[in-house]
Design brief:
The structure holds three protein chains of three kinds. By secondary structure, chain A is mostly helical. Chain A has helices at about 1-30, 40-55, 60-80, 95-115, 140-165, 165-175, 175-180, 185-210, 220-235, 240-260, 265-280; strands spanning about 130-135, 135-140. Chain A is built from eleven helices and two strands, in the order ααααββααααααα. A two-stranded antiparallel sheet of chain A has the order 1-2. Chain B is built from ten helices and ten strands. In chain B, the strands form two sheets. In chain B, strands 6-7-8-3-9-10 form a six-stranded mixed beta sheet, with helices on both faces. In chain B, strands 2-1-4-5 form a four-stranded antiparallel beta sheet, with helices on one face. The chains are: A mainly alpha, B alpha/beta, C mainly alpha. Chains A and B meet through α6 and α7 of A and α2 and α3 of B.
Chain lengths: ~290, ~230, ~325
């Protein structure tokens, strides 16, 4: 019995990590109506960047967050303004294909720079420490931290969207690009800021992933799929929905893995497809799909 | 120096020419009306002024500064604001948030939430409703308020009366004196000729992309206006 | 009252007549290749032809059906695994399996489409990817078809003399490559083609004209799935070994998208040109390993940003050239 509770809890906390991946994706889709195929690859890029600076700069993995996250944010702003803004318009093809091309480029650039070996960020004891909750039930400290960060990010975004001028601008630009311009909103700049934010969040996710597990250059696409699934399960337009989606995905994967090692990821995909069949708008959808 | 000076403004939609060199001025403190039938180019003209449509740099001057061709968000920062045709409130924002977003450009001036709620009291009651849950007339008030929040020198209004009942239209236009009192000049595009003549200090009539008539309402005869409007 | 002559609706242009001649000559050369070309050239030609077939299928989906898919590898892999099940386990002749694979994949595509069509636009695209992953994982977890490490399929072709095997492979590839091109061409010349173009241009307008948009999408999706399935079976006849990683690899989608975008999406000539460019680049850059892929990705991004209609899109609009004329021109009104 305790085993199953442990599995469940592991799944829930895994959901925290997935939620971090999903939130960045949801943000860029919410504001720019653009799915970034390279989303997962950017996370891996951030992780490898962190790995690359850990030794030369003598930083602890936690410190890399302070360095890499703002850098990735800046990179996101530049990328959006120089490249991705050109793809926005009525056609869905250009942003998808440009980001697809970017995904291939990033994966192979990482391959060339770091080889296909897996790497990770070492946090020592914390990586395997766990907290006993009673009986035989225990949860990892690291997963707890990640979940806390995920929730924190969501709280922050919620505040940003509802209480700040920037958040209002995001919502306005997402509703009606042209009318937003009439408010004095520079859409190109706003999209840049949104992407910067999404990149920063995905960088956090990537670094935590590298702390939690081994990563390799080709791991990006899988993360995109999980992020995407979490967003769809949770429902478009709902920030907290992405947390719910992430958790459901994490639990499905956890249970699947427990049943049979080859079924972990598959169980997640099947849960996604099931939600798609039964509740195509997701569980907490708030926006109309355009 | 006029507040707004438009000289030879042309506009194209692809190969189709909508405006053939419009000359128009608005003096400080004036209310100017532009009338004309559908497709005469009135909305295109407003769009060209605000920067949603490309215009030649020198063809539009605000307070003497050439603003033609500048992107809309910059033009708003310089002191023009447009109440767009069809209101176009933001569905994801409440009434109050719609008003607040109007102040995004951060221009100083007399307009703020309090003054707007004084001008349109009904909005204060519905401030937390989603923008689109209001009646047509109330949405029009929000749209006007939203544009005023950017403290424009000149307020451009595109077809305020569209889709609204006559009594509501009257209420909307009743707010104009209040707007004028704060020093904001107004340029209204209107299909309702009677309403336009009632509020305007000066009137222009567009026909097929050209100015067909200009003058003070009390100096223009019905025949003149009919000729300018319909071309017959 | 003057009697105006009825305008004629014409499709052929001088370029298309030249193109027809060229096509016939190339076809003759290809069919006779087993008798005059070297083994390695034949293999390259086979690969060229099946890549062309895949590109036409992707183009049909995305360029004409408006359905962007990054998961067609689901059907390529499935087609390949038909060889394992129907060939290894049921002993059916491999070249018979190719058309059968098309049938199997079309059948599988039916429930798949039912689920996928709940998504639209970019979401649909990622959804197709998820489906491909599901297929991959299901196959990898099935020990009877070789599980994660795959299986060899040489047994299905053993007993066939090498020359016959290679030649028939080439002819099948020709049938698929030229056939796909021809099929798309004929489709677009037909009433259905006009409907497809209408759907692509404006769904609401098409609906208002009585065109069933959902039906068109279903049709295009099933045809594309069947095409990819058949090509998948053929591909693994040439490779003789199949594993889930390779069968359901994203590389297939990347290739299809690259070829079509560079060549010119929404045109029939485009995939042909794109395949040529693709093989050309591969010849000269494959020595550079990962850099080859980086360059490929960069080229695709560059095209999407600055020449989104591809090489043929650019040429066709500049010179008003159409080798496969599907536009209807009205003569008699000029």
């Amino acid at each position: 019995m305790a085993e199953w509770i442990n599995t469940l809890l592991q799944g829930v906390l895994l959901g925290g990590l997935y939620s971090l991946f999903a939130t960045g994706l949801a943000l860029s889709f919410g504001v720019m109506r653009m799915i970034n195929i390279a989303h997962g690859d950017f996370a891996i890029l951030a992780a490898f960047a962190a790995i690359a600076v850990v030794e030369p700069l003598g930083l602890s993995p936690w410190m890399t967050l302070l360095v890499i996250v703002p850098l990735m944010g800046g990179f996101g702003y530049v990328l959006q303004r120089l490249v991705l803004n050109r793809t926005l318009g009525h056609d869905i093809l250009p942003p998808l294909l440009v980001t697809f091309g970017l995904s291939i480029m990033i994966q192979n650039l990482l391959l060339v720079s770091f080889s296909a070996d897996t790497r990770s960020l070492n946090v020592g004891e914390l990586g395997t420490a766990s907290v006993l909750l009673g009986g035989d039930v225990a949860v990892g400290v690291l997963p707890l931290i990640i979940m806390a960060v995920a929730v924190g990010v969501l709280v922050g975004l919620q505040w940003l969207f509802s209480a700040t001028s920037l958040g209002r601008a995001f919502r306005a630009a997402s509703d009606d690009r042209e009318a937003a311009q009439l408010m004095g909103i520079n859409n190109r700049h706003i999209y840049g800021v949104a992407m910067a934010l999404a990149m920063a969040i995905v960088a956090i996710a990537g670094i935590f992933l590298a702390i939690r597990a081994n990563i390799s250059p080709a791991d990006g696409p899988a993360r995109l799929l999980y992020a995407f699934e979490a967003v769809i399960i949770g429902g478009l337009g709902s920030l907290w929905g992405t947390l719910a989606g992430g958790v459901i995905l994490g639990v499905a994967q956890s249970i699947g893995l427990k049943a049979d090692p080859g079924w972990g990821i598959l169980a997640g995909h099947l849960a996604f497809l099931a939600v798609l069949v039964v509740r195509p708008n997701g569980l907490f959808a708030r926006t109309r799909d355009r | 120096m006029s507040l707004l000076e438009a000289q030879g403004v042309t506009a194209f939609y692809g190969d189709f020419q909508a405006l053939y060199g419009i000359d128009l001025t608005v003096e400080e403190g004036e209310t100017v009306a532009v009338i004309g039938s559908n497709g005469a180019g009135k909305s295109s003209f407003l769009r060209a002024l605000i920067g949603l449509q490309v215009a030649a740099r020198d063809s539009v001057r605000l307070d003497g500064q050439a603003i033609g061709g500048l992107p809309a968000h910059q033009v708003v920062g310089l002191g023009l604001a447009l109440v767009p045709e069809g209101r176009r409130l933001f569905p994801s924002l409440t009434v109050e948030e719609n008003l607040l977003i109007g102040a995004y450009a951060g221009r100083p001036g007399p307009w703020n939430l309090a003054r707007l709620y004084a001008l349109f009291p009904i909005l204060e009651e519905r401030r937390h409703s989603p923008g689109t849950a209001l009646s047509g007339g109330q949405q029009q008030m929000v749209a006007i308020g939203r544009a005023l929040m950017s403290n424009p020198r000149l307020l451009l209004c595109d077809e305020l009366s569209l889709g609204l009942a006559p009594i509501i239209i009257r209420d909307i236009y009743a707010a104009l004196p209040g707007i004028k009192a704060e020093g904001t000049s107004v340029l209204v595009v209107e299909q309702d000729v009677g309403q336009a003549m009632r509020v305007a200090d000066r009137l222009y009539c567009f026909q097929e992309g050209r100015v067909s008539l200009a003058g003070r309402p009390d100096e223009l005869t019905r025949e003149q206006i009919s000729l300018a409007y319909f071309g017959i | 009252m003057m009697n105006l002559p009825l305008p004629k609706i014409e499709r052929n242009t001088r370029a298309s007549q030249m193109g027809l001649l060229l096509a016939v000559l190339l076809l003759l050369a290809a069919v006779s290749a087993p008798w005059w070309a070297e083994r390695s050239s034949q293999r390259l030609l086979t690969e060229f032809l099946y890549t062309l077939a895949l590109a036409q299928m992707w183009n049909l989906l995305a360029g004409y059906g408006g359905l962007l898919s990054v998961g067609q590898q689901a059907y390529i892999g499935l087609g390949g695994y038909c060889l394992v099940v129907l060939g290894l386990q049921y002993g059916i002749h491999p070249f018979l399996i190719v058309p059968l694979a098309g049938l199997v994949t079309a059948l599988v595509a039916i429930p798949t489409a039912a689920v996928l069509f709940r998504l639209r636009g970019a979401y649909f695209a990622v959804g197709t990817w998820v489906v491909a992953e599901v297929f991959r994982l299901l196959v990898a977890n099935t020990a009877s078809v070789g599980g994660g490490s795959g299986t060899s399929i040489t047994k299905t072709v053993s007993g066939m003399p090498a020359w016959w095997r290679e030649s028939t492979t080439l002819w099948m590839a020709l049938a698929l490559g030229a056939g796909a091109t021809l099929a798309v061409y004929l489709l677009l010349r037909s009433r259905h083609g006009l409907a497809l173009t209408a759907v692509r241009d404006s769904e609401p307008a098409a609906e208002s004209l009585g065109i069933s948009v959902p039906r068109m999408k279903w049709f295009v999706y099933l045809v594309s799935a069947a095409g990819c399935g058949m090509v998948g079976a053929l591909i693994f006849i040439t490779k003789l070994r199949i594993a889930p990683e390779a069968a359901f690899s994203m590389d297939w989608s990347a290739t299809m998208f690259f070829v079509v975008i560079i060549g010119g999406i929404g045109t029939i000539e485009g995939p042909i040109i794109g395949t040529v460019v693709f093989f050309f680049l591969r010849e000269y850059l494959s020595d550079f390993g990962s850099w080859y892929l980086i360059v490929l990705g960069a080229v695709a991004v560059a095209f999407m940003l600055w020449m989104p209609r591809g090489i043929w899109g650019f040429v066709a609009s500049r010179f008003d050239l159409h080798f496969f004329p599907v536009q209807r021109r009205i003569r008699g009104l000029d």
